[in-house]
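Q&A log
Question type: sequence-to-structure
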Amino acid sequence: MDQLTAKFRELARVIEIPYPWDTSAYVARVAEYRGRPIHLCSIDPDALAGTGCGTGSGLWIAREHDDVIMYGGETPWHNDQIIAHEIGHMLLGHGIGKADNADDAGDLPLRELMPSLSAEAIRSVLRRADYGSDREHDAEAFADLLMVHAMLPRRRASRIRSTFFRARHR
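Response status: OK
Response body:
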């Protein structure tokens, strides 16, 4: 966990976490950092159930020039958590060097969920079942760290605190 926490801190320095929290702004910053657009696609929470996507709530589709995150949470908070989890996979390098599994796309109801998504455009479909338990744990821990960090109140510089600490440390 210490290694993951260090990686999270490093990424948080490079990719600013918006305050107040704004999922779209964070996704845009991650896309800029990675040099590829990320598209968010809200789906019915039960749409991916039984497809190897764990609880059936999220999916990362890596295409040739962009990425799609499909998410289907019951609440806005759950949606943010799902999106953060899939971004965790991206930023932790879980899709890098992974064998293409675009052929497995036929096993998923993608045609129904995104009729405009051509099978030829998909490089890989990365589901929860496609990662080892360590990678799943790391992506979930990344999402937890991100959401906690995003919800912490920001401390503004205080003249009183600054004056007090300056006087004490002289």
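Response note: Residues 98-107 have pLDDT under 50 and may be disordered.
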